[in-house]
TrEMBL record:
InterPro entries: Ald_DH/histidinol_DH, Ald_DH_C, Ald_DH_CS_CYS, Ald_DH_N, Aldehyde_DH_dom, Aldehyde_DH_Superfamily. It comes from the Bacteria. Signal peptide: none annotated. Its EC number is 1.2.1.9. This is Glyceraldehyde-3-phosphate dehydrogenase (NADP+). It comes from Phytopseudomonas flavescens.
Length: 541
């Protein structure tokens, strides 16, 4: 069996790293943003470690990138109070600014953010091990998301309308903010996923408390001053620390109006239930998934393999949209396993900045142990590792394993592995696959691969109310970000996309004015189409 990677050669020596990508000296970050000022935290700090190790004469050394404030509940609550004061029951300056002015603030922020591209991209590589190409993509995609959000809002603002509700009654819809939003995101897209809630929340007039993801936390530091300088005091507040100490206190206070959380459903539900008045809380949740790839007997196998390789293994499988289980019809099982295994062998392991690298170290401490445990469980119950070297590991690096046959008794059948394990379930009767989707706790997306239009059509009908997106002959993915992105069951609450997020972070107020010949002047004064500070939209939006 040839070795897919040589653990001894995997981690570099410092002087072998191109200068532009070498880690900076560790930073001791004490600043956090509250009420328009960068406060200096005097308390304990949390160390930020890279998943990357450096080779040294006497062994390997994990790189320490710096430290961030471990705020306590009181410090977090002070940030929340600043957001509450800036919102001021909807009477504050920010929720009452004209849409165009709020857009100008966001544009000012975006310009400052773009200046930090190199710093943020480098931290994405060092903090979460994302390869250079994908780190650059994450940064650029986040900027595009902001640009698209601004574009969508400008277009809506132009669409302002009044309409006749019924004879004698004129209606106007105002899109108003909801209050104070708490925004949190996952470590696999610490920039992009958090900004898909943060920016729409702000631009629609809410004030925000934001806690960066658990890894990919230092990369917010280059943006702290841009946030401070671009928004009025208290509109955006950024806290650091352990969620259980900081965010829990915010939820318990009852002062959070919108809970925008992208991460695990366990974290979301633990936090949501702390709110004393959950009926007052709007939630926008993007959560775990176990997206199946379903391969029918008549199929273009080369396309399946190429889509499934990136679908299952890009960023080492650490995407909510990753294909996390493959159902392969028995007629094509053997050639599929051979082709997938051969394709996998071409994925290059290495360091994030190296050209063409696909497989990189994993940021989560304990992840390698977790992957070993679920793999061992599958093997104990009858699965085999199909690809040479599958499951080999060294420090934070885990070489992907293709496992077959995976059966319902194994953890990998139902559990979200969020890592480089590819479980394959051979099937003969497609009813088994339908049953899997219906019984699953998750419902984000699925992929169907096949050439039989009738059978695909039948499956699309069966699955349309089970998942948020069905991909035909293509892997699962979120983009383009203008497409609706949601899920069912434990996978999501609400829909996030450029347009949908604007809805999510606002609510419609109907102004209904009865008019007669005598009060026409009053009516046109009350329903001034464009002089209102509020976004007025048509009924449908
Ligand atoms: N559907 C979607 O749009 C997406 C979903 N995901 C999903 O996100 C997950 C990976 O992200 P990950 O960062 O591990 O998610 P986690 O849920 O572990 O963490 C997200 C945030 O929540 C905090 N947190 C978690 N549990 C609690 C709690 N009980 N009390 C207080 N705070 C809490 C964490 O902080 P701390 O650790 O400090 O407590 C962190 O800031 C995967 O399941 C993936 O599928 C990822 C991307 C997109
Ligand atoms: O999968 C995820 O974690 C994000 O939602 C982004 O999805 P993408 O990698 O398919 O764009």
């Amino acid at each position: 069996m040839s070795r897919p990677f040589d653990p001894a050669a995997l981690f570099p020596r410092l002087h072998d790293i191109p200068e532009a990508y070498r880690p900076d000296a560790p930073v001791e970050q004490r600043e956090y943003l509250v009420g328009g000022e960068l406060r200096h935290w005097q308390g304990p700090l949390a160390q930020v470690r890279s998943p990357i190790y450096l080779a040294e004469d006497d062994g390997e050394r994990q790189v320490v990138l710096g430290s961030t404030p471990l705020l306590d509940a009181d410090a977090a609550l002070a940030a929340l109070d600043a957001a509450v004061a800036a919102y001021d029951h909807g009477q504050g300056q920010w929720p009452n600014l004209r849409v165009a002015e709020r857009i100008a603030h966001v544009e000012a922020f975006l310009a400052r953010m773009r200046e930090q591209r190199a710093a943020v991209v480098k931290l994405l590589m060092w903090e979460i091990g994302k390869n250079l190409k994908d780190s650059e993509k994450e940064f650029d995609r986040t900027c595009d998301y902001i640009v698209d959000t601004i574009g969508a809002l400008k277009e809506l603002d132009r669409r302002s309308s009044r309409f006749e509700l019924e004879q004698g009654t004129l209606g106007q819809i105002r899109r108003v903010p909801l209050g104070v939003a708490l925004c949190m995101g996952p470590y696999n897209y610490p920039l992009n996923e958090t900004f898909t809630t943060l920016i729409p929340a702000l631009i629609m007039g809410n004030t925000v408390v934001f806690k960066p993801a658990k890894f990919g936390v230092l990369l917010m530091r280059p943006l702290l001053e841009a946030f401070r300088d671009s928004f009025p005091p208290g509109v955006i507040n950024i806290i650091y620390g352990r969620g259980r100490e900081t965010v829990s206190a915010l939820m318990e206070s009852g002062k959070v109006d919108v809970f925008a959380f992208i991460g695990t459903h366990k974290g979301a539900s633990d936090l949501k239930k702390l709110h004393p008045k959950p009926h007052r809380l709007r939630a926008a949740l993007g959560l775990d998934a176990k997206n199946p790839g379903i391969v029918l007997p008549e199929v273009d196998l080369d396309n399946v393999v190429s889509e499934a390789l990136t679908g299952a293994l890009s960023f080492n499988g650490q995407r909510c949209t990753a294909l996390k289980i493959l159902f392969i019809h028995e007629d094509v099982l053997q050639p599929f396993l051979e082709k997938f295994s051969a394709g996998l062998a071409k994925l290059k392991p290495g360091m994030p900045w190296e050209a063409g690298v696909a497989l990189t170290p994993l940021p989560e401490p304990g992840k390698v142990e977790y992957l070993k445990a679920v793999m061992a469980d599958a093997i104990d119950k009858g699965a085999r590792i199909i690809n040479p070297g599958g499951g080999e590991h060294c420090a934070s690096f885990f070489y992907p394993a293709l496992l077959c046959p995976v059966t319902p008794q194994m953890r990998l059948y139902g559990e979200e592995q969020f890592g480089p394990l590819v479980p394959v379930v051979p099937y003969r009767d497609v009813e088994q696959v339908i049953d899997y989707v219906l019984q699953s706790d998750f419902g984000q997306q699925l992929s169907l691969f096949g050439n039989d239009a009738q059978q695909i059509g039948r499956l699309v009908d069966a699955f349309a109310n089970q998942v948020g997106r069905i991909n035909i002959n293509a892997q699962c993915q979120r983009g383009p970000d203008t497409f609706p992105f949601n899920g069912r069951k434990d996978s999501a609450e609400g829909t996030l996309s450029v347009h949908d997020a604007l809805r999510t972070f606002s609510i419609r107020t109907l102004v209904a004015t009865r008019f007669t010949d005598d009060n026409k002047a009053l009516v046109s004064e009350v329903i001034r189409q464009r002089s209102s500070n509020f976004l007025t939209t048509d009924y449908i939006f």
